[in-house]
Amino acid sequence: MKEKLKAFIFSELIYHEDPAAFGDGDDLLEAGLDSMGIMRLIMFAEKEFGVTLPDTEIEPDNVQSLNALENWIKQAPQNL
Q1: How many structural domains does the chain have?
Q2: Is residue 80 part of a domain?
Q3: Rounded to two decimals, what is the model's pTM?
């Protein structure tokens, strides 16, 4: 899951000189993930992983790192 998220983030949302060097706990917001990027990331995750990520849970703690994103997605309700 993290690899799919990372590939999407660094191919579509953030430029990073060496994405492979970006750690799972590194700060995506400091790296340049903005509000529009967060919305695109949420739409990608919902489609890719078949979950619903509630708007009320969109907060920095859930999108700050790849680890945080993975935890949020794993706790999200599955689409039926």
Answers
A1: 1
A2: no
A3: 0.90
